[in-house]
Here is the input.
Amino acid sequence: MFILVQKPLRRTYTPLLSIEILQTELTDLVQIKPHEIDRDSGEIVEDKINEKYSDKVIQKIGLCMYMYDLLDASEGLIGYGDGTVNVNVRFRLLVFRPFHSEVLLGRVIALSPTGIRISVDFFEAITVSPDLLFENMKFVPDDETEAGGGWLWDNDGNELWIDLGDTVRLRVEREEWRDQTPKGPVISREDGTMAVGEVNGLREGEDVEHEREPYRIVASMNAGGMGPLTWW
Here is the structure.
């Protein structure tokens, strides 16, 4: 009989202090192969759970980061035939899912006429659309300025820029979830871009790149203190 020995968990990642991380409780079946039994049982379970969940999105729960702790585990039962040990486990995961109106710090990683894309290092599906920026802001292409393209805010005659790499403060407005289950063929548009039909849950004009994101945060930068830290 395989007995699970619980030991303190190893820590491989430290979340940013400026971001609130949630805990969620899950249950699952961990399968341990015969050649893995000689390893420490607690480490095997932790590795198996992290391999399955880390950097994965669970619908309506959030982006899983890593296993926080092991709450319970059954005795391992050896399966018939291949010698695999099956262990039922109950554990907690650390999850990234900011709440509505939460203020985050991020870094600008992309600029375009359709808005701004922001990263918090381990998560890059954060977007700010033009209607969620300050009034009197406009996108200036590369060929119209020596400093390169970016978003420009005309604040009573003062020109304030948002450039690539800027550290910005933003506010969470809503979250968008996308079911990743295949539901239809990918269709090529006349202009060479790709899209899928309404059966995949996409609105007309959305691209496959966005459709591949199971979880996206829509944020705003249109209030005092929001935007690049150098503005305030």
